[in-house]
Amino acid sequence: MNNTINIGRKDVIWNYAATFLQISAGVILLPFILRTFPQETVAMKNETDTNKLNNE
Question: How far apart, in whole angstroms, are the C-alpha atoms of residue 27 and residue 17?
Answer without folding.
Answer: 15
